[in-house]
Design brief:
By secondary structure, this protein is of the alpha/beta class. The chain is built from 3 helices and 19 strands.
C-alpha cells in the first residue's frame, strides 16, 4: 500500500468512521469523505453514488470492487481480504457481516498445518441485504435477490430469490421488474 493509502486508512479509522450518518444535514458530506478515503485504501474500483455510513469496519486492502448506487449501512463489518464484488443498486443494511476468509485446521491443539482459506463474495445487481445478515466465504448472491434480516448465507442464492433463516433457505421468489432495468430504460428515454 502506498504512503497516501496508509494515511487515508488512518484518517478513516481515527476520524471519518466516527462522523455521524444520521440526524445531521451534513450526513451526505460525511459519507463522501468516508468514500474519498476508502477509495485510497480499501476500494479497488467503485462506481458513482457510493454511500458508507458511520462505524463501518473494513479488513483487507484494495479488495472491494463495486458498481454504482451501493452502500454499507451503519456498523457493518467487511472482511474483504478474499475479495468482494458488488453490483449496482445494492443495499447493505446496518450491522451486516461479509466474510471472505475462514479458518481451516488440521488439529485444534497446534498451529502446524492450520491456515486461513480465502474465497471471494459476489453480490450481483439489485440486491437487498437485511440487517444483521451474515454472508460467508465463497457465496454468490444472484441478481435481484433479497436476504432477510439475520439470515446466515452459506450457499449461493439464485437470481430473484428471497431468503431467510439460519442457514438461509429460499422462502419465495421476487416478482416485478429489477431496479437496474427500470433505471436503464429511464436513462434511454429522451428528456421532454
Amino acid at each position: 500500500m502506498t504512503v497516501g493509502g496508509k494515511i487515508a486508512c488512518v484518517l478513516y479509522i481515527l476520524v471519518a468512521k466516527r462522523l455521524p450518518s444520521e440526524g445531521l444535514a451534513l450526513f451526505r458530506v460525511f459519507s463522501n469523505i468516508r468514500v474519498f478515503l476508502l477509495r485510497r485504501c480499501v476500494f479497488n474500483k467503485v462506481g458513482r453514488y457510493v454511500n458508507v455510513a458511520d462505524s463501518v469496519e473494513f479488513f483487507g486492502n484494495r479488495s472491494i470492487n463495486g458498481g454504482d448506487h451501493f452502500g454499507f449501512g451503519k456498523g457493518c463489518r467487511i472482511y474483504a481480504a478474499g475479495g468482494i464484488s458488488i453490483g449496482t443498486h445494492v443495499m447493505i443494511s446496518p450491522y451486516v457481516t461479509l466474510m471472505t476468509s475462514n479458518h481451516r485446521y488440521v488439529t485444534q491443539f497446534s498451529e502446524i498445518g492450520n491456515y486461513d482459506e480465502y474465497r471471494p463474495i459476489v453480490i450481483k445487481d439489485d440486491v437487498w441485504i437485511g440487517e444483521r445478515a451474515i454472508i460467508l466465504p465463497g457465496v454468490t448472491i444472484g441478481r435481484g435477490a433479497i436476504v432477510g434480516a439475520g439470515a446466515v448465507v452459506t450457499k449461493d442464492i439464485p437470481d430473484g430469490a428471497v431468503v431467510g433463516g439460519n442457514p438461509a433457505r429460499i422462502l419465495k421468489y421476487r416478482t416485478g421488474e429489477p431496479l437496474t432495468e427500470k433505471a436503464a430504460r429511464q436513462d434511454s428515454q429522451p428528456m421532454t
